[in-house]
Specification:
The chain is of the alpha/beta class. The chain has two domains: 66 residues, no CATH class; 130 residues, Vaccinia Virus protein VP39 (Rossmann fold, 3-Layer(aba) Sandwich), CATH 3.40.50. Helices cover 36% and strands 16% of the residues. A five-stranded parallel β-sheet has the order 6-5-4-7-8, sandwiched between helices. The two termini are 15 Å apart. The chain binds S-adenosylmethionine.
Length: 234
């Protein structure tokens, strides 16, 4: 399987990203800090600024910070991993991504779109709930998305729903964006409903959201009969 952070294509891309960030410092210990509360201090224009990892509006406004923080320092490789996984499964089924019209939900500044474009998909429409994500995608990856909506899928205006249905998406991607105060199950279900049948779906989700004890709603939306050992190794 290709697609890990050591992937040369991915490393080359990271090297090409211009970053305004002069330094990133993590707290000595994250014991007792919930994932949603994690933070770091960054150096920017000679000043130090504290940024919570989930404050995407602040993060996207600083060119290069998202990539440097999550992908370079924390070694997250979800966009390339999921895009490569999708491509390999599609090939196993004797199909190709060439005719994929993708809806990328929680698109952020476009890293998933960038990967999908590399796999030669037909078109990509992005959706995010914050304007700063669309602005950053336009700034960092201007030629990736055919359209990019800033909208709330739990309260989708009719005119936007009509335009999304007209796009006849046959693939949904949602990467590093489900749960933890980000995309709720209801919005994910709405996105699924916008995809043609048959269609393709590629997403990642922390395994605890699939456990029986989960209260977020994801375990009811995706009732996979995992046992504990499968969850740890899947
Ligand atoms: C960690 S980023 C992931 C971005 C991109 N998918 C990637 O893998 O690089 C999570 C994104 O989900 C977006 N998001 C959070 N809640 C959302 C919602 N309810 N609807 C749409 N997007 C949402 C955030 O604004 C942010 O851009």
């Amino acid at each position: 399987m290709t697609g890990l952070a050591t992937d040369t294509v991915w490393q080359n891309r990271l090297e090409r990203i211009d970053s305004d960030v002069e330094g990133i410092h993590f707290p000595d210990s994250v014991d007792g800090i919930d994932q949603d509360e994690e933070w770091c201090d960054i150096q920017l224009n000679g000043e130090s600024r504290r940024i919570r990892f989930h404050d995407y509006s602040d993060i996207f406004e600083i060119p290069g910070l998202y990539e440097e923080l999550f992908y370079d320092r924390l070694k997250c490789c979800s966009p390339s991993y999921i895009a490569n996984l999708l491509d390999s499964v599609v090939r196993e089924y004797g199909e190709s991504t060439d005719e994929f019209r993708v809806l990328d939900v929680g698109a952020g500044n476009g890293m998933v779109g960038d990967e999908l474009q590399r796999h030669g998909v037909e078109s990509i429409v992005g959706i995010d709930i914050i304007r700063e994500a669309r602005d950053a995608a336009g700034r960092d990856r201007p030629n990736v998305y055919e359209d990019y909506l800033v909208t709330d899928l739990t309260d989708l205006p009719e005119v936007e729903e009509e335009s999304l249905r007209r796009a006849e998406a046959n693939c949904l991607t949602t990467v590093a964006a489900l749960g933890y105060g980000d995309i709720p199950p209801l919005a994910f279900a709405k996105a699924l409903d916008l995809i043609a049948t048959p269609g393709w779906l590629a997403f990642n989700l922390k395994e605890s959201f699939l456990r029986e004890q989960d209260t977020s709603g994801f375990s009811r939306l995706i009732p996979i009969p995992f046992n504990e050992s499968q969850l740890l190794t899947a």
